[in-house]
């Protein structure tokens, strides 16, 4: 789960990493009650998950109250790369002497974590990595050892931080690692981390991703979840034990197993069709799952045909067939359904479907081709 | 011969009194896997399918010193503890069925296993089967037939499907390994490929990867140095960026983990890239690998 800037900064604040004072607002009407206590100038910032909000006009420097209100009203409700702005922050502006980049990230290739630091703060780090990788320090962190003061000092030396400020920077780095570990993050990024002419550090922006597998031991994080339109349905599906992702095609897919589901989508694409979704029903053959799956994918009105691709391993094909017949009876579906059943109890499953309106096929290729054809209405 | 599990496997089941574990204990036993003991803290003295249950791995090992493999079925938040307990008890092969293990936990356990020279497979593996020898996990036994093709896949359904495709064409499997769908895995493609290359019973290997992570690309150097042919299939070629496709590991982040980067790396290493499963028999014949 990704956090918004202000959410990440709340975490920084809790761990003692300095952030500017700010007010978080969720509507224009909250503006009149906002305390005017930040001084001017202030920065008005859209809170979105997508990158590049500055270029899109989602970050503005306001020199007085009037400007702040104007920018606030502009930014609240605007759309940045398809994401609607529903939360806006008004933050103190700090004097910047120099900007840095600092992050800790999961590194699967090196089997641990990597700390990245650069003097090119405020830039997109991917771009720096491409154009001048020598400007980035990559420090591998062994999870059995952890991030220790010697790592933090090395960052200070690399960034040419004045000696008198190295200890303050080290503290920030060690705190960043502590919060990264304690909260099961896969990314904790400060970009930029700034130093003021007085020598104080501030985290001006934050990016954090928490490992979804670890959400069960961080229940309090649920309060930070913000779901957009499609994500709401995906979340609902998850609660029913289905793994569903909406796409923009017209062939609905129901498959058991994530790998096979992806392979099915690939095949539909290969033969010139467009999958409407990814859907993994998992290993169970409970009829209710099939009912839920059909109900969810047919909410998308672009769906013109359904391809059900089941390999019965643990799941038995006759159970799937029974569930499917129950589902069709219950939700009275009119769309053409193509089904491929193979594996355990295949014969029994197919026998149950004989004489029904379902199109049974014996290969994945045949199923993909037929469902594409039926989606076109020919 | 086979890899990782065979007739010499002496199995422990951690979390044996759980619903899934006890159900599959029965199926594994029926298949002929030698299961010596189970562990569930607080359940010492009970039996599951006539398998004695102990409180700790050390206790089980003290009673059955010949245990050389364990399978882990505990809930995700207990997996790190269970894996480390098995590593500490020096069990050489650890097969982790538990899915959705927190990333930080698995990184730590994986690193410890490597340090101690212990094989960890999973998390989120459907299991490993060496047909007619042993089954560890929950793979549907009827789907697999003895033969000379090694398979290694991240996904369960793909593992069954590969075997089914091979069997219909008259081939069979030396061992089928599910390496798991979790974001952090113990053994990765390269590790398993090395074992297959050394196994006299295996004549060719099929690997089935998917988007997300770097484990497919990391197999590049191994494939370059292999004596045996490798056929590779990658799922998720049309998956959109930033969307997690079911498996916790299957997500394309930035430019990392795309199907194309995996296909390019594997092709360059000399693997035969499969577009569909149905072409497998044909490609095997082209490589002079007969049933």
How are the SSEs placed, and which strands pair?
The complex is a heterodimer of chains A (378) and B (291).
Chain A: E1 2-3, H1 5-14, E2 22-25, E3 42-46, E4 59-62, H2 65-75, E5 79-80, E6 83-84, E7 88-92, E8 98-107, E9 112-118, H3 125-131, E10 136-141, H4 149-158, H5 163-182, E11 185-195, E12 201-203, E13 207-210, H6 229-239, E14 243-246, E15 251-255, H7 258-270, E16 277-280, H8 287-297, E17 305-312, H9 317-331, E18 337-343, H10 346-353, E19 359-361, H11 364-376
Parallel strand pairs in A: 15-17, 17-18, 18-19
Antiparallel strand pairs in A: 1-13, 2-7, 3-4, 3-7, 5-6, 8-9, 8-11, 9-10, 11-12, 11-13, 14-16
Chain B: E1 10-14, H1 19-31, E2 34-39, E3 47-48, E4 51-54, H2 57-63, E5 69-72, H3 79-88, E6 93-96, H4 103-116, E7 119-122, E8 127-130, E9 134-137, E10 146-153, H5 156-168, E11 173-178, H6 189-198, E12 204-210, H7 220-224, E13 230-235, H8 259-269, E14 272-273, H9 280-286
Parallel strand pairs in B: 1-2, 1-5, 2-4, 5-6, 6-7, 10-11, 10-12, 12-13, 13-14
Antiparallel strand pairs in B: 3-4, 8-9, 8-11
Helix pairs in contact in B: 3-4
How does this structure look, described?
The complex is a heterodimer of chains A (378) and B (291). Chain A is α+β, with helices and mostly antiparallel strands and 378 residues long. Chain A has three domains: 21-92, Dna Ligase, domain 1, CATH 3.30.1490.20; 98-223, D-amino Acid Aminotransferase, Chain A, domain 1; 230-376, Rossmann fold (3-Layer(aba) Sandwich). Chain A is built from eleven helices and 19 strands. Chain A has helices at 5-14, 65-75, 125-131, 149-158, 163-182, 229-239, 258-270, 287-297, 317-331, 346-353, 364-376, and strands spanning 2-3, 22-25, 42-46, 59-62, 79-80, 83-84, 88-92, 98-107, 112-118, 136-141, 185-195, 201-203, 207-210, 243-246, 251-255, 277-280, 305-312, 337-343, 359-361. In chain A, the strands form five sheets. In chain A, strands 1, 8, 9, 10, 11, 12 and 13 form a seven-stranded antiparallel β-sheet that branches. In chain A, helix 4 (149-158) packs across helix 5 (163-182), helix 8 (287-297) crosses helix 9 and helix 9 packs parallel to helix 10 (346-353). The model of chain A has no long low-confidence stretch (mean pLDDT 91). Chain B has 291 residues and is an alpha/beta fold. Chain B has two domains: 10-122, Rossmann fold (3-Layer(aba) Sandwich), CATH 3.40.50.720; 140-286, 3-Layer(aba) Sandwich (Rossmann fold), CATH 3.40.50. In chain B, 31% of the residues lie in helices and 23% in strands. Chain B has helices spanning 19-31, 57-63, 79-88, 103-116, 156-168, 189-198, 220-224, 259-269, 280-286, and strands at residues 10-14, 34-39, 47-48, 51-54, 69-72, 93-96, 119-122, 127-130, 134-137, 146-153, 173-178, 204-210, 230-235, 272-273. In chain B, the strands form two sheets. In chain B, strands 3-4-2-1-5-6-7 form a seven-stranded mixed β-sheet. Chain B has a seven-stranded mixed β-sheet with strand order 9-8-11-10-12-13-14, with helices on both faces. In chain B, helix 3 (79-88) runs parallel beside helix 4 (103-116). The relative contact order of chain B is 0.12. At the A-B interface, helix 7 of A face helix 4 and helix 5 of B.
């Amino acid at each position: 789960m990704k956090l918004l800037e202000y959410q990440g900064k709340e975490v920084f604040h809790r761990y003692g990493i300095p952030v500017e004072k700010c007010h978080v607002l969720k509507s224009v009407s909250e503006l009149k009650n906002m305390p005017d206590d930040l001084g001017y100038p202030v920065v008005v910032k859209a809170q979105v998950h997508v990158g590049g909000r500055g270029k899109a006009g989602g970050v503005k420097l306001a020199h007085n109250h009037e400007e702040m209100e104007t920018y606030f009203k502009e930014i609240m409700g605007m759309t940045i790369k398809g994401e609607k702005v529903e939360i806006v922050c008004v933050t103190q502006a700090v004097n910047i002497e120099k900007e840095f980049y600092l992050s800790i990230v999961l590194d699967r290739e090196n089997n641990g974590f990597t700390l990245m630091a650069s003097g090119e703060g405020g830039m997109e780090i991917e771009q720096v990595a491409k154009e001048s990788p020598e400007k980035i320090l990559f420090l591998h962190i062994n999870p059995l050892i952890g991030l220790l003061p010697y790592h933090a000092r090395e960052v200070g030396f690399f960034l040419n931080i004045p000696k008198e400020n190295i200890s303050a920077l080290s503290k920030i780095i060690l705190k960043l690692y502590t919060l990264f570990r304690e909260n099961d993050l896969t990314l904790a990024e400060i970009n930029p981390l700034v130093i003021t002419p007085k020598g104080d550090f501030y985290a001006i922006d934050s990016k954090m991703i928490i490992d979804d597998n670890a959400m069960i031991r961080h229940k309090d994080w649920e309060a930070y979840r913000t779901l957009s339109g499609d994500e709401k349905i995906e979340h609902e599906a998850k609660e029913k034990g289905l793994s569903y992702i909406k796409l923009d095609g017209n062939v609905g897919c129901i498959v058991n197993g994530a790998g096979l589901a992806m392979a099915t989508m690939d095949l539909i694409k290969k033969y010139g069709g467009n999958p409407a979704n990814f859907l993994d029903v998992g290993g169970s053959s409970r009829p209710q799952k099939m009912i839920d799956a059909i109900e969810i994918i047919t909410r998308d009105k672009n769906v013109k045909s359904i391809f059900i691709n089941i390999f019965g391993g643990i799941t038995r094909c006759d159970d799937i067939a029974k569930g499917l017949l129950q589902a069709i009876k219950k939700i009275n579906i009119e769309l053409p359904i193509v089904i491929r059943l193979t594996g355990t109890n295949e014969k029994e499953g197919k026998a149950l479907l004989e004489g029904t309106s379902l199109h049974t096929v014996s290969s994945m290729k045949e199923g993909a081709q037929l469902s594409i054809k039926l989606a076109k209405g020919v | 011969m086979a890899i990782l599990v065979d007739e010499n496997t002496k199995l422990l089941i951690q979390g044996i009194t759980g619903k899934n574990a006890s159900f599959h204990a029965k199926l594994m036993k029926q298949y002929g896997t030698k299961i010596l003991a189970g562990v569930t803290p607080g359940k010492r003295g009970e039996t599951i399918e006539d398998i004695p249950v102990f409180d700790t791995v050390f206790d089980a090992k003290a009673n059955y010193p010949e245990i050389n493999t364990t399978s882990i079925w505990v809930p995700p938040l207990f997996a790190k503890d269970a894996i480390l307990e098995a590593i500490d008890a020096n069990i050489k092969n650890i097969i982790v069925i538990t899915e959705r293990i927190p990333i930080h936990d698995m990184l730590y356990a994986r690193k410890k296993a490597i340090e101690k020279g212990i094989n960890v497979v999973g998390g989120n593996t459907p299991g490993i089967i060496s047909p007619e020898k042993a089954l560890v996990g929950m793979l549907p036994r009827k789907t697999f037939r003895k033969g000379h093709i090694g398979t290694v896949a991240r996904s369960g359904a793909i593992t069954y499907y590969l075997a089914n495709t091979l069997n219909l064409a008259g081939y069979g499997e030396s061992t089928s390994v599910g390496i798991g769908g979790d974001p952090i895995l113990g053994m990765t493609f390269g590790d398993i490929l090395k074992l297959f290359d050394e196994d006299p019973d295996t004549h060719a290997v099929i690997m089935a990867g998917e988007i997300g992570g770097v484990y497919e690309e990391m197999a590049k150097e191994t494939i370059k140095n292999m004596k045996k042919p490798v056929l590779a299939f990658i799922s998720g070629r049309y998956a959109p960026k930033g969307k997690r496709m079911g498996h916790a590991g299957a997500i394309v982040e930035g430019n990392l983990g795309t199907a194309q980067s995996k296909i390019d790396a594997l092709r360059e290493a000399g693997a035969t890239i499969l577009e569909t499963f149905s072409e497998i028999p044909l490609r095997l014949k082209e490589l002079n690998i007969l049933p």
